[in-house]
Amino acid sequence: MKQNPFKYGQVVTGKDYCKRGLLEDELISLIKRGQNTVLQGERRAGKTSLIHQTVSRPTSQRLLYCDFLGIKTGEDLIQRIVQGIETIEQQESLIKKVVRFIPNLTVSVSIDPVTGTPSLSPSLARNTYRPESLTGIIDFISHLHQQSPLVVAFDEFQDCLNLKDAWATLAIMRSRIQFEDKICFLFAGSIRNYMWKIFQDPDSPFFKSALTLDVDASSLDNFSGFITRQFRKGKRKLEKGLFDRIADVCFRNPGDIQQLCAALWDTTQEGDLITEKGFSQALVHVFHNELRGYETILSDLSPQQSVVLKTLARLGGVSPLAGEFVQASGIAHTSSIKAALTRLVAKRLLFLVGKEYRFVNPFFRLWLLHKRY
Ligand SMILES: Nc1ncnc2c1ncn2[C@@H]1O[C@H](COP(=O)(O)OP(=O)(O)OP(=O)(O)O)[C@@H](O)[C@H]1O
Ligand SMILES: [Mg+2]
């Protein structure tokens, strides 16, 4: 039986990757010019995959990829950069070299629970981060670049704002990076507003320090053709118009479309023509897989947040302060609705596109509707 070709929740490459011709060409030419670039887009829009795909194409540069997701301290920041370096450099020689640049790094042995293999990993002990640790590690990156050219990607860059001295740390990073005009730095981030704050707020050390590229669905070259070909691998076909229906409920987000298509694949068989009925079954399949998460979310909401979320699922998020919404929610004061919306955004259940509030997880919205909550 043919394996499900739809991949989601992970970086996609090779045959799993749908080309983004113009955007890739643009990014390659920026990299060749050494132009520092911000890649911004919604969650699951394909930023990380684009970076890997583009730098793996013949730019004759190595990718130093560092993921800042969830960093909370300066030590975490250094650790993530070291981890990135570990993936391109040989362990033993790396450790000898890197400690020359950051003397307060300590080296410990850790055992990979999956493979059981021991490895040496350099890290900073708690509360030992100093500004020199950051300048030191960037000096080390510069040293690596001189040996063989690098493209440096800092992914989930907005999470630098979690750091206690976020602005000061960004200032150090920026002042050191600006002297590395031969290295191309890519900064990717999923939360538009925060990335905006770092690169467009005049008070930010990174103000206008990089060019911005938007990663959105419009740059996917013929995504419907790509999806159709993937279905064809398992002798399945989408009924006319069904791709648009899938894309609509997923707000054209590639990650969500792939997730729904994976469910469509799992709930159908070779030779099937997939119809609206199959679409409904696939949605139920997705709900089933995600049910526990949905229930946890609901149990963590205040009564007002819950009402606002459910009303938004029904009426959409274009005008949640207008009369119809207020009436349907039964909440008397628009200020209370506004406060609930702000909390729901902070909880990352909703996000803003222009003035429209959208569900981060479109399937959660459909589940609320399905349950008639
Ligand atoms: N070019 C592409 N071709 C096919 N599918 C894609 C492509 N880009 C993204 N996807 C889909 O979106 C998912 C998420 O991709 P990726 O992790 O690259 O996005 P991201 O923007 O970095 O997401 P996040 O904000 O969660 O880090 C992939 O697993 C895949 O399902
Ligand atoms: Mg990513």
Quick summary:
The protein is α/β, with parallel strands linked by helices and 373 residues long. It folds into 3 domains: 19-218, Rossmann fold; 222-290; 301-373, Arc Repressor Mutant, subunit A (Orthogonal Bundle). It has helices spanning 21-33, 47-56, 74-88, 91-101, 131-147, 166-177, 192-200, 223-233, 242-249, 254-266, 276-299, 303-315, 323-329, 334-346, 362-370, and strands spanning 37-40, 62-67, 106-111, 118-123, 150-155, 184-189, 211-214, 237-238, 273-274, 350-353, 356-359.
Polypeptide structure, described:
The chain has three domains: 19-218, 3-Layer(aba) Sandwich (Rossmann fold), CATH 3.40.50; 222-290; 301-373, Arc Repressor Mutant, subunit A, CATH 1.10.10.10. The chain is globular, with a radius of gyration of 23 Å. It is an alpha/beta fold and 373 residues long. The relative contact order is 0.12. The protein has helices at 21-33, 47-56, 74-88, 91-101, 131-147, 166-177, 192-200, 223-233, 242-249, 254-266, 276-299, 303-315, 323-329, 334-346, 362-370, and strands at residues 37-40, 62-67, 106-111, 118-123, 150-155, 184-189, 211-214, 237-238, 273-274, 350-353, 356-359. The model has no long low-confidence stretch (mean pLDDT 92). The protein has a five-stranded parallel sheet, sandwiched between helices. The protein contains 15 helices and eleven strands. The protein binds adenosine-5'-triphosphate and magnesium ion.
